[in-house]
Design goal:
The chain has a domain of 62 residues. It is an alpha+beta fold and 95 residues long. β3 and β4 form a beta hairpin. It contains 2 helices and 4 strands, in the order αββαββ. Strands 2-1-3-4 form a 4-stranded antiparallel sheet, covered by helices on one side. The chain is 42% helix and 35% strand. The protein is rod-shaped, with a radius of gyration of 23 Å.
Amino acid sequence: MAFGITDWISDMRHKLFLLIPLLLSACIFDDRYAAEVGYFEGEDIRWEVWGDFETLEDCQDAAITRYNFYAADKRAQSWSCLKKNSDGGYESRHR
């Protein structure tokens, strides 16, 4: 059985069809970050985690702004940005 040019083209189309969703998902699911701020509420430390920031810098700006809000009452504890992973959890902490 000969493997002609039409078979080759058909095979390449099939591979391209399978590759497109993979490439699109790589574009769509770039690194995303959530801001995390710790603050004191009486004797207890509370944590706020929020956001879906496209860049670490955007996340840092949001976290620092919220941290400064708590720092004005001397309740701020810490801030960081959490890098999200593909299953919705967090894989690492950044400052």
